[in-house]
Amino acid sequence: MSEVTKNKYTLETLLPLNVSYDRDRILIQQDVDMVNILVEVIEGSRSNLIPKVGDRMHHVDRDGDFYRYALLENFLADKMLVCLAQYVPFVSISDPDIWLSVSGGPFTSIDPTEMKFIGWEDGVFSAWEHCGPCANGSVRFMAKVAKWEYIAPEPLYGDFTTETWRKLYIRINENPESRYRYVANGTAFRDDADFDRFKKNYEATVFNHSESMLVIWCFRERHISTFYRIELQPITY
């Protein structure tokens, strides 16, 4: 179990997370008190042995798609319902700990026994505050939650994942009048020679997806900007 933070926030420390709310609704001590109660309930219910609602997860599906901030949303019929790409969840106190209202997706369900604990991290939550449910009426805050990892069995592409590799779905264009033989999201290749150069330059590995589709795993591009500090002599007249 992680350590529970008592009175984590003050008006001064909660304000930077809620500038827009403060402008429209005015952040008050009542909001701070409610947030601190929620933080204590969330952090006091965490475990490094049992996945809990509100925890976060590194999730890798069979297609190799990596989700860094998947959210454990609900526990149903011995499975944990997981939102892979969620918006900031709304939280309220429930029995025995918390209840979430989550939007986003996609959703999947996972056996909690297949999740591996990998550490602790601050998770972002939101809650309706003194104005109740209304436009821009929620306050955001952070509470320490457990971090888990799940890697789906029988991956389609071995150890390739989008955490470290670029994945492209390449459509094979059979139209002889088309300018491009291979077409992907954001790029295209005129002919086999053009495609082969790309594969060589990016050390690509090719998988057959279907008769008209390939899946390519290759190096990512990384653009680095370099700034130079130039000392100039002062101008004198």
**Uncertain residue ranges:** none
Gross morphology is: extended
Structural class by helix and strand composition: alpha+beta
Strand content: 35-45%
Tell me roughly what share of residues is in helical segments.
10-25%
Trace the largest sheet across and list its strands.
Answer: 6-3-2-1-8-7
Characterization of this structure:
By secondary structure, this protein is an alpha+beta fold. It folds into 2 domains: 11-151, no CATH class; 166-218, no CATH class. The protein contains 4 helices and 13 strands. The protein has helices at 11-14, 19-24, 29-44, 192-201; strands spanning 56-60, 66-76, 79-83, 90-93, 98-101, 107-110, 116-128, 138-151, 166-172, 182-184, 187-189, 205-210, 213-218. A 6-stranded mixed β-sheet has the order 6-3-2-1-8-7. Strands 11-10-9-13-12 form a 5-stranded antiparallel β-sheet, covered by helices on one side. 22% of the residues are buried.
